[in-house]
């Protein structure tokens, strides 16, 4: 564990001090008011300290995030559908970028103030799409936020749909560095299902955006310098971007897909896998994706090299239907039924398994994994586990966060999302 790294976050406080135009001496404010103002201006600024990975979360100094962070996300039990990885929130240092169907807010996690705000230039494609907004992604010094918008009818042209990609600067004043639009195919406007848009990532000067809905998909490569459309791949649901490649699932028939890798700059096909029914693909590690499905052979649950499409490793048996989350370090944490399993992200080897009733332990409900730690809820309250061994960490985390960074943990309380400062 690395030691604490203090980060001073200066609060932008407005002091009503007018130089050279103050009142006459007889009209001056009482000394008590002046002293109070001076004390206020000299109050120390709040700060967040980094712990990588954090061991506990401070509920006393929590900060409320905008309603957009959870709107349309909770189920009848008040839990977040799909977990924290699908929240419309990107955490970057001491700031949160919170997206909605028509805008994005930049929140200071030290005090909850709004540092910046940008809006989409158009109407949302679906009015009730709050629960389907995916998180923004970080691309260098910019945050990429895509919006699904309508294009109004004009003259002989009927109404349609477009995606607007907005790049928000990660530096003050947190405004749009650039934005561009791409016209979408007709099925996105007519689809009866929920159409989703995702900024997959950016590498080598190309940003990738993918749109899915009703078993259709399309992906786009956008030049981050000229903001022009570089390529279009109908049928491709992009999942991972990096090492000069974009990798995803190519829709060939209803519920039938093939893994596909395309060149990031040109969009040309580089490799194609075998057809898989009801396939699932997810980022598994740097340069690696996991591909699985219910009707494939014994070696069907595999980790693929994104550059070649070749299998790097085969996942342990029994995890095919399980969701696995990469801790952004070295481990995949999988949750098959009433169990938690740790898998080495490089070799696919099972590191440990915690099953209900074994060795007098009960598997926790996993809420987040990050940098070698597993966070969740157990029978005795919130817990932290070592992702490489499955052992309980000797700490009382005080909360079970949905997302974690070295500065904060996002915790759901009464259907609202709060940022909790971390401790080591």
Automatic annotation (TrEMBL):
Residues 30-46 have a biased composition (Low complexity). Residues 24-46 are annotated as: Disordered. It comes from the Bacteria. Residues 1-19 form the signal peptide. The keyword Signal applies. Keywords: Plasmid, Signal. PROSITE patterns: PROKAR_LIPOPROTEIN (PS51257). This is PQQ-like beta-propeller repeat protein. It comes from Streptomyces yangpuensis.
């Amino acid at each position: 564990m690395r030691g604490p790294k203090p980060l001073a976050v200066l609060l932008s406080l407005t002091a009503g001090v007018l130089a050279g135009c103050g009142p006459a001496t007889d009209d001056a404010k009482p000394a008590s008011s002046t002293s109070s103002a001076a004390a206020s201006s000299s109050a120390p600024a709040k700060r967040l300290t980094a712990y990588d990975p954090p061991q506990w979360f401070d509920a006393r100094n929590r900060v409320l995030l905008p309603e957009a962070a959870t709107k349309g996300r909770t189920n009848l039990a008040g839990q977040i559908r799909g977990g924290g990885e699908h929240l419309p929130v990107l955490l970057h240092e001491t700031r949160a970028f919170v997206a909605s169907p028509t805008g994005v807010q930049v929140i200071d996690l030290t005090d909850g103030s709004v540092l910046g705000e940008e809006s989409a230039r158009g109407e949302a494609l679906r009015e009730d799409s709050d629960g389907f907004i995916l998180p923004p992604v970080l691309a260098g010094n910019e945050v990429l936020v895509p919006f699904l918008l309508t294009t109004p009818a004009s003259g002989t042209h009927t109404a349609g749909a477009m995606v607007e990609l907005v790049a928000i600067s990660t530096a003050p004043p947190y405004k749009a560095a650039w934005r561009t639009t791409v016209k979408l195919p007709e099925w996105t406007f007519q689809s009866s299902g929920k159409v989703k848009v995702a900024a997959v990532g950016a590498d080598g000067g190309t940003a990738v955006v993918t749109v899915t809905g009703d078993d259709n998909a399309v992906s786009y490569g956008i030049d981050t310098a000229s903001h022009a459309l570089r390529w279009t791949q109908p049928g491709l649901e992009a999942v991972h971007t990096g090492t000069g490649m974009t990798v995803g699932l190519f829709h060939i028939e209803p519920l039938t897909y093939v893994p596909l890798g395309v060149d990031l700059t040109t969009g040309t096909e580089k490799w194609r896998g075998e057809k898989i029914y009801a396939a699932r693909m997810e980022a598994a590690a740097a340069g690696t994706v996991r591909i699985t499905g219910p009707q494939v052979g014994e070696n069907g649950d595999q980790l693929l090299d994104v550059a070649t499409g070749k299998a790097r490793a085969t996942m342990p048996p029994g995890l095919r239907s399980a969701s696995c989350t990469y801790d952004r370090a070295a481990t995949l944490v999988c949750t098959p039924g009433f169990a938690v399993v740790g898998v080495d992200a490089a070799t696919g080897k099972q590191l440990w398994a915690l099953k209900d009733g074994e060795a007098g332990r009960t598997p926790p409900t996993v809420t987040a994994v990050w940098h070698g730690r597993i966070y969740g809820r157990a029978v005795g309250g919130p817990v932290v586990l070592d992702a490489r061994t499955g052992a309980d960490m000797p700490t009382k985390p005080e909360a079970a966060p949905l997302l974690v960074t070295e500065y904060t943990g996002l915790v759901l309380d009464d259907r609202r999302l709060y940022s909790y400062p971390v401790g080591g």
